[in-house]
TrEMBL record:
<dbReference type="InterPro" id="IPR016166">
    <property type="entry name" value="FAD-bd_PCMH"/>
</dbReference>
<protein>
    <recommendedName>
        <fullName>FAD-binding PCMH-type domain-containing protein</fullName>
    </recommendedName>
</protein>
<keyword id="KW-0732">Signal</keyword>
<dbReference type="InterPro" id="IPR006094">
    <property type="entry name" value="Oxid_FAD_bind_N"/>
</dbReference>
<keyword id="KW-0274">FAD</keyword>
<dbReference type="GO" id="GO:0071949">
    <property type="term" value="F:FAD binding"/>
</dbReference>
<dbReference type="Pfam" id="PF01565">
    <property type="entry name" value="FAD_binding_4"/>
</dbReference>
<comment type="similarity">
    <text>Belongs to the oxygen-dependent FAD-linked oxidoreductase family.</text>
</comment>
<dbReference type="InterPro" id="IPR050416">
    <property type="entry name" value="FAD-linked_Oxidoreductase"/>
</dbReference>
<dbReference type="InterPro" id="IPR016169">
    <property type="entry name" value="FAD-bd_PCMH_sub2"/>
</dbReference>
<dbReference type="InterPro" id="IPR036318">
    <property type="entry name" value="FAD-bd_PCMH-like_sf"/>
</dbReference>
<keyword id="KW-0560">Oxidoreductase</keyword>
<feature type="signal peptide">
    <location>
        <begin position="1"/>
        <end position="20"/>
    </location>
</feature>
<dbReference type="GO" id="GO:0016491">
    <property type="term" value="F:oxidoreductase activity"/>
</dbReference>
<keyword id="KW-0285">Flavoprotein</keyword>
<feature type="domain" description="FAD-binding PCMH-type">
    <location>
        <begin position="62"/>
        <end position="233"/>
    </location>
</feature>
Length: 499
């Protein structure tokens, strides 16, 4: 104990003595502090950096309190961190951008959170055809770097989303229908294995890990940086089309028509949202985009032609448009996301809307005049996305058979509240809504039984939906690259490989 107190006192400006106690979890923090290469990168609960990083989580549900945070600055730091975790049996969590919603997504209660937030310097050499991005970058940081250079990548549509978790979970971008998932545009993953070894995974070197890493999240090692194909413009034409509630059915019909024909216009994308809160109003909208930056109103004519629709669509850079998505939400509140996948079908959307409105009324009655936000967001998953994936080496998402008979729409329910008592009152209603929608889809044969990991709720099991062959590939890669199962037993954050 005397040694630990002496060590901590020596660096008291960073880590207060009072926070170190003699238990297993804090012994891991002490082990990091004992490493001269890491001690100035370790932050205990009473440090200002710890408080700032904890406050920076998108969802308070995810902002668990580790015994310490370690913020590497380089791949070498990550290698040392991994070796220390391995040698000391430390329970740990992994944070990239900290944008996922559920408790346990990207941190750990007690133990060590390995926070990649300081590894965020995007590198692009003009003419190289690729961009190298550290896993701790947010997509807002990436776009701000690339915009002056006139290029972009198939990245996140919200500026606060982190590169690492987004990409290894699949990654739905503005370019999805043109190039596949973001993970399909990855040329190389740099990965630090559990024992500290640094390897590359690409089409020629460790190709089995390269494929498995495209969708299987943090189950193999610490992804430290990702090399992406470059996209040739920094311009995007897009924004929101808003609709009166009386035109909901017309919107559903136009949206399904658009989704069912997306394969003919790969650069055009439309999502759909229904937003409710404590006020009497319900907002219907379609976020649209043309990823070439060239205005193409004709591609969205059905969505524009609905009576009394209004629009904010205009020319943007990617750095300009990405913060607009975040502005629709409440960063720093308690967020809850639940996701399913259904066939693209007008009756399906109408049923979702009817059930949503009934649930919204129950929520308003349950917490009168208390502030909350409840959202349904729909995103298309098309055959083109899957075909591009296959052409680029494949991934493990298992969507080939899921959309074989036609396009589908991801349906994410998002409940956001400021206080925990509201969450306790309203989350059961949101879960009941999910169950009601699933029951309808099951009864009509419209449920695709697939869940997208970055939007999944904590008790969902998205990797189990990837299919027998892909799960076998994931297990084989884990057995080869993490033979001691460190990322299944000591890693406390994220979704694990199905047993």
């Amino acid at each position: 104990m005397a040694y630990l107190i002496t060590l901590v006192a020596a660096i008291s400006s960073l880590v207060p003595v009072a926070t170190c106690k003699r238990d297993t979890k804090n012994e891991c923090c002490a082990a990091f502090l004992a490493d001269p290469s890491l001690r100035d990168k370790v932050f205990l609960p009473e440090s200002s950096t710890y408080a700032e990083r904890l406050a920076d989580y998108y969802s308070k549900n995810a902002a668990l309190s580790p015994s310490c945070m370690v913020l590497p600055l380089s791949t070498g730091d990550v290698s040392a961190i991994a070796a220390t975790i391995y040698e000391n049996g430390c329970q740990f969590g992994i944070r990239s951008g900290g944008h996922s919603a559920y408790a346990g997504a990207n941190s750990v209660e007690g133990g060590v959170t390995v926070d990649f937030g300081y590894m965020n310097a995007t590198s692009y050499t003009p003419g190289s055809g690729s961009v190298v991005i550290p896993a701790g970058s947010t997509w807002g940081q990436v776009y701000e770097t690339l915009d002056p250079l006139g290029v972009s990548v198939a990245g996140g549509r919200a500026s606060s989303v982190g590169v690492g978790g987004f990409t290894t979970g699949g990654g739905y971008s503005f370019h999805a229908n043109a190039v596949g998932w973001a993970c399909d545009t990855v040329r190389n993953f740099e990965v630090v294995l559990a024992n500290g070894t640094v390897i590359n995974a690409n089409s020629e070197e460790n190709a089995d890990l390269w494929k498995a890493q495209k969708g299987a999240s943090g189950n193999f090692g610490f992804v430290t940086q990702v090399e992406f194909d470059v996209q040739p413009t920094n311009r995007i034409w897009g924004g929101f089309i808003f609709y009166p509630a009386a035109q909901a059915l017309a919107l559903f019909e136009a949206y399904v028509e658009f989704v069912n024909n997306m394969d003919k216009k790969p650069n055009s994308q439309a999502l759909m949202g229904i937003i409710g809160n404590e006020t009497p109003n319900v907002q219907y909208l379609a976020p649209i985009s043309e990823n070439t930056g060239v205005p193409d109103r004709a591609a969205f004519e059905g969505l524009f032609s609905i009576s009394n629709a209004t629009s904010s669509v205009k020319d943007h850079t990617y750095a300009d448009i990405a913060p607009l998505v975040v502005a629709l939400t409440h960063p720093g509140w308690y967020s809850n996301w639940i996701v399913e996948l259904y066939a693209s079908n007008v009756d399906m959307l109408s049923s979702i809307n009817d059930s949503f409105l009934k649930t919204l009324a129950k929520m308003r009655a349950a917490v009168p005049n208390r502030q909350f936000s409840f959202l349904v967001e729909l995103q298309p998953v098309t055959q083109s996305i899957v075909k591009h994936s296959a052409a680029r080496g494949g991934n493990v998402l298992g969507l080939d058979s899921v959309v074989a008979d036609g396009p589908a729409v991801m349906c994410m329910l998002s409940l956001t509240v400021e206080m925990t008592d509201l969450q306790e009152a309203l989350l059961p209603l949101a879960l009941d809504l999910r169950d009601e929608i699933v029951a309808y889809a099951d009864g009509k044969g419209l449920n695709k039984n697939w869940r997208y990991a970055p939007y999944a709720w904590g008790n969902q099991d998205p990797l189990a939906d990837y299919g027998t062959e892909n799960i076998a590939l994931i297990k084989a890669a884990a057995g080869k690259y993490d033979p001691d199962g460190v990322f299944q037993t000591l890693r406390a954050s994220g979704f694990k490989i199905p047993v």
